[in-house]
Amino acid sequence: MTTRLEQILETVFRLEEYQGQDKVTSLKDAIGRNITPGMTLHFGEAANVLACEVVRQFWGRKPNFTLVVSMLGEQMAA
Length: 78
What we know:
Elements: H1 4-13, H2 27-34, E1 40-43, H3 48-58, E2 66-69, H4 74-77
Parallel strand pairs: 1-2
Helix pairs in contact: 2-3
């Protein structure tokens, strides 16, 4: 016997068996597919991991990014 709460949860939050392509990817792959030289990149003040991965992937090249940040911190200054 299920409780009323379990019935509501099953009805409201039930997921279909297949809801399309899985879009989960690594940060490395996402940057590799979506960030190209010459882009304007906007980083929030807590985007250190993102900034480091962009630097890793474009190290030794001149990607000519325009960098927009709300606050310049240690990682962004690099």
